[in-house]
Amino acid sequence: MNVLIIYYSQTGNTQTIARCIRDGVREAGHSVYVVPLKQVNAAMLEKYDLIGLGSPIWCADPPPVRKFIESLPMQQGKHLFLFTTHGTMPDLYFPVVSRNVIEKGFQIVGMADWYGDCKIQVFRYPYFTTGHPDEIDKESAAAFGREVCRKSQAVRDGLEEPLKQVPPTNINPMQACAVINMLNGNTSPHCSLKQDRSKCLHEKGCSICQDNCPMGYIDLDQGKFGRHGDSCGDGHGCTYCEMLCPAGAIYAFEPTFEEEAKKDAARGFKMFQMILAEAEEAGRFRQLMPPEAFEEYVPFYQTTGHPRIRPLSCKEDNE
Ligand SMILES: Cc1cc2nc3c(=O)[nH]c(=O)nc-3n(C[C@H](O)[C@H](O)[C@H](O)COP(=O)(O)O)c2cc1C
Description:
This protein is α/β, with parallel strands linked by helices. It is built from eleven helices and seven strands. Strand 4 (79-86), helix 4 and strand 5 (107-115) form a beta-alpha-beta unit. It has two domains: 2-169 and 312-318, Flavodoxin domain (Rossmann fold, 3-Layer(aba) Sandwich); 192-254, Alpha-Beta Plaits (2-Layer Sandwich). It is globular and about 60 Å long. The chain has helices spanning 13-27, 42-45, 63-71, 93-103, 135-156, 173-183, 208-212, 240-244, 257-267, 270-281, 300-303; strands at residues 2-7, 31-36, 50-56, 79-86, 107-115, 192-195, 250-253. The model has no long low-confidence stretch (mean pLDDT 93). The strands form two sheets. The protein has a five-stranded parallel beta sheet with strand order 2-1-3-4-5, with helices on both faces. The chain binds flavin mononucleotide. Flavin mononucleotide is lined by residues 9-15, 56-59, 85-90, 116, 118, 120, 190, 236-238.
């Protein structure tokens, strides 16, 4: 079988899982190619028998993933598996994304999710999920790779059925608020951004924010920054450009990171801890950080200077 694994990833969790699934597919004796979403075009899918599509959870699917699915021609039952990494609230992803791919004519032969570290400026760091994906997660991702190949073959042989039912939505109150906020187009929970031109290194040849904005919102030559042309902030609150900027030329306003982090510290993240405690009790989550790690509130933006993260290298995807 020829397998294509497509992933979208900003901080590396989904990329790590994609590579482990790749290893499982290889162990099962199949040929596999791993590729970041921005290098994929619809025609590429035709050469493969089984497609994997992975991304982080941003409420549900990040807009580039949604746009990619929308851009595809109708599929005639091509086999597909979905995988995702997330922080505390994964519940909306599969109900939304599985519906979208089934409507596109794919047959789903597997879905799996893993916890991942959260590097969000105003969130505490380490976060409750820091340490994931760990070795156990990686082994289970490889096992998932083997399983989706087996399942795809069994469906092809008429021995098993693909997934027909979209999973039910089981949404917690905090995520419900985030969704309402997003649908109303309100300010991002991860802050809104502006660009300080006096610090920008574009004249020295830097265009890292423009090259990596998942929405194509930045045109430095035209002086256009963000969704609104002079600022960025929607319900998703991607903030990738702020993370990548080497000069700190992109900053949060109304609220600032300081203001938002203070609010988060005051809320104490109790809801997140409750959700994770429930997940731990149900055997879906393992907290890897010792409790002492959470005694002090240090927001992620204070743990690092600029750039906060670097773009991912894809060199090892197909090694
Ligand atoms: C804009 C944004 C929105 C996010 N929304 C959610 C969410 O709704 N639920 C959740 O569990 N995690 C959420 N996260 C956390 C990421 O899903 C998590 O850190 C993921 O593992 C990142 O994957 P990556 O390293 O492949 O980019 C969000 C992260 C970002 C940057």
